[in-house]
Amino acid sequence: MEEVEIIYRARQGDQVAWITLVSEHQQPVFRLAYLILGDPDYAEDITQETFVRAFRGLDSFDERRSLKPWLLRIAANLSRNQRRSAGRYWAALTRFGRRDMDKQQDSLEEASRQVEKSRALWEAIRRLRQPDQEILYLRYFLDLSIEATAEALGIAPGTVKSRLHRSMKRLEAIISRDFPTLKEEST
Predict the structure, then answer these.
(1) pTM of the model
(2) Could you tell me the maximum CA-CA distance found in the chain, to the nearest angstrom?
(3) 22: which residues sit within 8 A by CB, 6+ positions away?
(4) Tally: H helices and E strands in the chain
(5) Taking a C-beta distance cutoff of 8 angstroms, is the pair 135, 150 a contact?
């Protein structure tokens, strides 16, 4: 069944259809909230609030568009508000790059180097301005297309491309200046 049909059924009060939508989009919503907030408990709260708000606003959603960017936009806005209201700064992302480390790494030493590289990359990204961080997360960490990233941020696809380019240049400058070991290892 296509997403448009599932949305229509969810609008009519079909709980199975709503659960299907939540199940399909819950992980990317959580991941984005976690990347912005750096705390799994806050990310879980934001994920739940995102779906509550989406359910309330489902009647106004344009079903000709993809649901995922709309949900990610809600999650990003809620996460930014949470971050501002709590006055919190992002925590270190220690699990980045660890997903399949046991399978991918042959030695403890190599695993340790990989964790350090991930921490350094995360720290370098944290030094960017929030809009730069968000565009990199959506495009590269959540693997959204240019169009879906544009929709999630409420900007034109051409703007996404130019912001990505500028954000990557800023990240490269930070890495060159403050994390030269990352640059050395990538060459």
Answers:
(1) 0.60
(2) 56
(3) 51
(4) 10, 0
(5) no
* pLDDT tens profile 19-70: 999 999 999 999 999 888 888 888 999 999 999 999 999 999 988 888 999 9
Tens digit of each residue's pLDDT (9 = 90 or more) over 61-116: 988 888 999 999 999 999 888 876 554 333 333 334 444 444 454 555 665 676 67
Q: What's at 88, amino acid-wise?
A: R
Domain CATH number, residue 68? 1.10.1740.10
Domain residue limits at 87:
1-91
Same domain, 73 and 163: no
Q: CB-hemisphere CA count at 13 Å for 165?
A: 6
Alpha carbon 183 to chain centroid distance? 24
- Asked if residue 179 lies in contact with residue 120, where contact means CB atoms within 8 angstroms, the answer is yes
CA distance 139 to 137: 6
Residue 85 and residue 101 in one domain: no
Tell whether 83 and 98 lie within a shared domain. Answer: no
Q: Residue 106 corresponds to which amino acid?
A: D
- The residue whose two tokens read 């990989």 is 114
Distance CA 142, CA 14 (A): 29
10 Å Cβ neighbour count for 185? 10
Distance CA 51, CA 149 (A): 19
Q: Are residues 68 and 17 in the same domain?
A: yes
- As a whole number, mean pLDDT of residues 114-139 equals 85
